[in-house]
Amino acid sequence: MEFRIAVLKGDGIGPEIVAEAMKALDTVGEKFGHTFTYEEAPIGGAAIDAVGECLPERTVDICQGSDSVLLGAVGGPKWDSQPPSNRPEKALLGIRKELGLFANIRPARLWEPLADACPLKPERLKDGLDLVVVRELTSDVYFGDKSRDADGRSHDDMTYSPEEVERIARRAFEMARQRRNHVTSVDKANVLETSRLWRETVARVAEGYPDVELDYLYVDNAAMQLVLNPGQFDVILTGNLFGDILSDEASCITGSIGMLPSASLSLSSRGMYEPIHGSAPDIAGKNLANPIATVLSAAMMLRYSLNLPQEADAIEGAVNRVLEAGFRTADIAKPGDEYMTCSDMGQAICSEIRNG
Ligand code: NAD
């Protein structure tokens, strides 16, 4: 099959890590008989340098004409003096809006060979750690009315419509069907009216997915359970604010920022895939970055947008074998141990995809 991928390398380490993810896609393509055609477009600081704006219209058009979007990272000190409306990070909000991306998917998985990097005690991990947080992205307290009274009292309006809850809930249940058929919906329904709507709506959506187990947790308990027994979770479904916090918590219990992919999905099959880390200006241009988060983001693209689960497994399996073989970039190497470059890590993953 043939697929058109929009490639937004961005700033800092963006070009280095995205290059390795493209090599992994090409290697999977050779192995399974697919062709990936890439169309590159500038975003963030690179776009400011090229055309003066962080999100050029042409970049949006290229993304809209693609089957999916692969993004590196944006930002860096060079553009810190830009006005707020033209900061590189602003481009991310813009592209999410233009592509209708309302669901943010963040997997947190413990890679067995990196178990040492996990801050939890081994007995907390007896049931493993392999979950995804499905976070609503377009509503909640971030987008409600904001105001400040004369006496200083301040307000942030938390809002959700039934339609907004329903579409994110469907995404979570669909995702659970591609995983272990279990959704945990997280809210604060003992206090918040939006959470009571959330619960009612999720319960209604669940009727259409009798094969998926559903349970509910209050957000305070969910935060606790994540560090006490993360193995109990498969898909965590939650709103924008709670998802912001829980997805960071889930990420940090896996150990390294260079290992964590993410996806943002819309109602169509097109999604945007990117590592959760930033542009790491401190190591940019040195061939030192860990490309695995971006390579795994490409694997998520294969699974969730291009419907190629076997091909996604091929990449994830290759990453695991490379780690098992002891290959490490600087960020995941033990102090004093040898480590490899970004491009050598990409090469090692491609060899494993070929041999797997
Ligand atoms: P960062 O994630 O870029 O870096 C934090 C630390 O992690 C740094 O020490 C960096 O070297 C290290 N690191 C990050 N990714 C790595 C990788 N793949 N391999 C090895 N080490 C890695 O966060 P920051 O320093 O707070 O932000 C730098 C810039 O990135 C800022 O301009 C920020 O606004 C931007 N940013 C962009 C995104 C995005 O594009 N989605 C996300 C977060 C931050």
Structural description of this entry:
The protein folds into two domains: 1-109 and 259-356, Isopropylmalate Dehydrogenase (3-Layer(aba) Sandwich); 119-253, 3-Layer(aba) Sandwich (Isopropylmalate Dehydrogenase), CATH 3.40.718. It contains eleven helices and twelve strands. It has helices spanning 14-32, 45-51, 57-64, 90-98, 162-177, 193-206, 219-228, 240-252, 292-304, 309-324, 342-355; strands spanning 2-10, 35-40, 68-73, 103-109, 130-136, 146-148, 154-156, 182-187, 213-218, 235-238, 261-265, 271-275. The two termini are 21 Å apart. The structure holds nicotinamide-adenine-dinucleotide (NAD). Nicotinamide-adenine-dinucleotide binds next to loops.
